[in-house]
Specification:
3 strands; 6 helices; mainly alpha; three-stranded antiparallel beta sheet; about 150 residues; elongated
């Protein structure tokens, strides 16, 4: 958070939200900036991470404006699962964190009702199931996802 303004020294309004209670560390600009500039490799990594984050934001905007809810939900769940473990495309993938339909809907720019209806449809089709409180998704729903960064896309 605060990465672009932190790197450039420009002011920006930044809001951050966490799913669970969290602790943040706030550093004065001059302290943070002087430390990352001490090592060109760290400085380059910071710049690279900013680029990746901005590309991710652009992809999210493209998804929200061009994909239907089903596709956005698949892409979100795939990304979430990949951030915790390698997806099993031939079997079941447990949801790595508990998220409400309301939070998922806010994340993919959809209504809670649309998300709930889509998940219910997936359950009827056998693409989703529950093991107690854990939602599991069959890996087959993650095939043929739109990738704007793939060659030729």
């Amino acid at each position: 958070m605060g990465d672009i303004d932190g790197l450039t020294g420009t002011m920006a309004n930044v809001s951050a939200y966490t799913i669970k209670n969290s602790t943040g560390l706030v550093l004065p600009y001059d302290v943070w900036h002087s430390e990352i500039r001490k090592d060109i490799n760290i400085y380059e990594k910071v710049a690279q991470n900013i680029t990746f984050k901005q590309e991710s934001h652009i992809e999210a905007l493209l998804a929200c404006f061009t994909l239907d809810i089903d596709s956005r939900l698949r892409a979100f769940l795939h990304s979430l699962i990949k951030s915790y473990y390698k997806p099993n495309y031939a079997g079941w993938n447990p949801m790595p964190v508990r998220l409400t339909a309301t939070l998922i809907a806010a994340t993919i720019s959809a209504s809670r009702t649309s998300v709930s209806l889509t998940l219910s449809d997936w359950m009827e089709k056998g693409w989703m199931k529950r093991d107690g409180n854990i939602a599991l998704f069959h890996g087959s729903i993650f095939t043929n996802l739109k990738d704007w960064w793939a060659p030729g896309a």
